[in-house]
Design the sequence.
């Protein structure tokens, strides 16, 4: 089964390709600010689809968001693995418990 780990590996590999051949490389060459802006645009498109779009558009926009998230992480040198580990550490308590602990 294809996973986000597989896509993160593709993004890592394409970082070394030429910008003419690779859209990923062309984004990375423009730097973190550009990658962050692209991620934000895709997030807004998903927000709109999520609120009022059909199932197909939610699926397509979610895929764009995940791809652009991986490119943004790569542009900032943040390993996708480390984000997964951060999520794993949060499985020890529920979101409600975490929020209550912050307020205490
Ligand atoms: N999953 C994706 C993926 N999802 C979305 N996109 C691109 O993200 C862009 C988002 O849509 P926009 O309408 O904002 O695009 P745009 O206006 O053409 O973008 P800009 O010119 O503004 O940058 C589109 O160009 C999509 O093709 C992706 N591009 C690449 N991948 C994966 O990355 C791999 C490597 O791609 P290359 O780096 O191009 O070889 C591919 O084989 C795919 O697996």
Sequence:
């Amino acid at each position: 089964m294809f996973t986000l780990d597989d896509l993160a590996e593709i993004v890592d590999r394409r970082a070394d390709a030429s910008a003419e051949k690779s859209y990923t490389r062309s984004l990375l060459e423009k730097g973190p600010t550009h990658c962050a802006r692209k991620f934000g645009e895709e997030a807004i498109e998903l927000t709109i689809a999520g609120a009022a779009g059909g199932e197909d558009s939610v699926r397509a926009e979610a895929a764009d968001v995940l791809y652009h998230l991986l490119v943004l992480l790569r542009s900032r040198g943040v390993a996708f693995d480390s984000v997964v580990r951060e999520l794993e550490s949060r499985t020890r308590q529920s979101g409600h418990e975490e929020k209550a602990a912050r307020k205490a």
Summary: The chain has a mean pLDDT of 96.
